[in-house]
Write a structure and sequence with these properties.
279 residues, alpha/beta, Rossmann fold, 2 domains, five-stranded parallel beta sheet, 10 helices, 5 strands
């Protein structure tokens, strides 16, 4: 069932993502214009192309993606106060590009590199905390390339080679991150665990960890929205489309995970309501 969910989520998203929808509309409208002459189809094709043009202009000039990301990113405080005792720090994958790392023979990070930067920073701040990285591969055709395989190299370069690093490298999505990591580290009741991931991804992540009865202290990083400049007009089609894709994927993920019982709330805002992990 988990494999079916993984495959279905990837295939459905490939069809409904904003960039895919724009291409589908563009191709559909063009095809209708060149079909054998029929007034209705010709008119429909023109309307679809007009709609596509209007949507493209909106994406080009307005930061709609940031408007969708901001409500997610503001649900958790950046740089929150941490307890005096931290038993473990867990960081979700998504910052390392495993296929590119394999191609070039070195650890290559993506836009979410702040996850690893914060992981290293907190590891130094809490020298007695257990350190856990969870992340395999989230691609349908890249299961042989694991993010976790390249993390020890980064740890060595950061001067933390002497610390024990617990690695979970089989998870393909956030739900598996939580489930597989819990099986690996077996957290005990009363322990303080800090969870690091991108701010927009934190609501879904904490909801999944709570569903697994593993309370965590959220440490959100990698903010995408500029909350002081949300209402602006600028010509940035590629950047706006990328942010819109990121935001749409996260909102769809929140809904899908909630409907399938993988998160305890549709839009989690804190982890304090979690049931403590049995000792």
């Amino acid at each position: 069932m988990d494999t079916l969910f993984f495959w279905a989520s990837k295939l459905v998203w490939a069809l409904i993502s904003p960039d895919s929808l724009l291409v589908i509309l563009l191709v559909s409208g063009t095809v209708l214009l060149f079909l054998p002459s029929h007034p209705f189809l010709y008119k429909l094709g023109r309307r679809i192309l007009a709609l596509t043009c209007a949507l493209a202009l909106l994406v080009a000039f307005l930061p709609a993606g940031e408007w969708l990301l901001y409500p997610l990113e503001r649900r958790f405080t950046a740089n929150p106060e941490l307890p005096a005792r931290v038993d473990g720090i867990i960081v979700l994958g998504g910052a390392l590009n495993a296929t590119r790392s394999s191609a070039w023979g070195q650890a290559e990070t993506d836009d979410a590199a702040e996850r690893l930067n914060s992981f290293v920073s907190l590891a130094r701040r809490f020298p007695d905390a257990r350190l856990v990285f969870t992340g395999g591969s989230g691609g349908l055709s890249t299961q042989d390339f694991k993010e976790a395989d390249y993390l020890p190299t980064l740890f060595q370069e950061a001067g933390l080679g002497e610390r024990t690093l617990e690695i979970e490298n089989q998870s393909r999505n956030t739900w598996e991150n939580a489930v597989f990591s819990k099986n690996l580290v077996k957290p005990q009741a009363g322990e303080n665990w800090v969870l690091i991931t991108s701010a927009f991804h934190m609501p879904r992540s904490t909801g999944i960890f709570c569903q697994q009865q593993w309370p965590v202290v959220p440490w959100p990083v990698d903010h995408h929205s500029d909350r002081q400049r949300l209402w602006r007009v600028e010509l940035q089609f590629a950047g706006h489309l990328l942010e819109l894709r990121t935001a749409s994927k996260e909102w769809v993920g929140l809904l899908a995970y909630y409907l399938t019982g993988k998160t305890d709330r549709l839009l989690p805002a804190e982890a304090s309501h979690c049931t403590p992990t049995p000792g």
